[in-house]
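DM from R.C. (forwarded with permission)

"hey, sorry to bug you on a friday — could you get me a structure for this? deadline for the figure draft is monday and I only need the backbone to look sensible"
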Amino acid sequence: MSKRVVLLGQPVTHSLSEALQEAAFAAAGVDASYEPIDTPTVDLPEAVKALRGEEYLGANIGVPHKDRVASMLDRLTEEAQVTGAVDTITCDGDQLIGHNTDVIAFKPALEELVGNQKMPKNAVVVGAGGGGRAAIYSLIQAGFQNVALFNRHLHRGERLVKHFGRSASHMELKARPWHESVIEAELAKTDILINASAMGRDPEETPIPGELLPPDILVMDLHYVPEETRLLREAKEAGATKVMNGDVMLIEQTAAAFTLWTGEKAPLDVIKKTLKSARNKPDVPVRTAEEQAAEASA
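My reply, with the result:
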C-alpha cells in the first residue's frame, strides 16, 4: 500500500517540503506521497485523528499548530517535550509520537554560522513561536550564558522564559520589551542575532531596523526565501561578520523527518539539489482539511 505524509498548517502555500520530501521518497524508492493541507485550528483535531489510519507514515506540523498539537498525541520525544512544540509526527501502530526536528536541525545550522570560531556565549532571539523555542533550547544546550528574547507580545516571551526556567538555570535568559532602544542596547552586547519570527518573509519587511544592527555580529534568519531577506541584506551593509538564511535548517529538518518516517538515511544530495530547483516553480493550490475529508468520504 502506498503511504501518505501530510503537512498540517495555515498557511502552507509557501512550504517547499512537498517538493523536497517527494524527491527524497523517489530517490530512496519509498512508495509514499507528501501533501500540504491548509488546516484551520478548528479542523486540527480531526486532521490529527486521521493520521491513525494505516495509510499514514506521519505528518509535518506547520504554523500556527506546533504548540497546539502536543496534547493530541500519545507520546512526545524529549526535544518535543522540553520545547513544548511538535513539528513532525510519526505513527507507531495506532500510536502517534510527536518530534521536534527544529531542535535537531538548529545545531548544524548554528555550527555552520559560527564556523571555526569559538562558540559565542551571548545571543538575541526574535520570536517566541516554534522556531524560537527550538533556538533557545539549542542555545541552552550549547552553553550560552546570556540570551535576550524579543517578541511583539511580551507576555508570550515571558511565558517562554518561564517554560525554560529549570533547564536555563545556569544562564541569564530574559524576555525584553519590544522597544527600539532596548533592542539596540541588547544587540550592542551580543554575538549572534537569530530571527525566528514570522516577520521577514516579505522582502520589504524586517523585524529589526537596519540602523539598530551593530557591525561584527553573526546573523541567522530562519526564513528560507529565495532572495536574501531584508534583515540579512541590512546586516551585511552594517558589517556583519556572517549572515545565513534558513536553508541549512530546512535541509536538516527534511532529512530528519524523512528518517523518522522511513527508518532510512535521507538522500541529502537530492534534497539540496531539489531545494534549488523548487524555488523556480510557481506555487500550486493546496487542499483544505474540509476538501480532504470530502474526498475521503466520497
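R.C.: lifesaver. DSSP finds eleven helices and 13 strands in the chain.
me: no worries. The longest strand covers residues 3-9.
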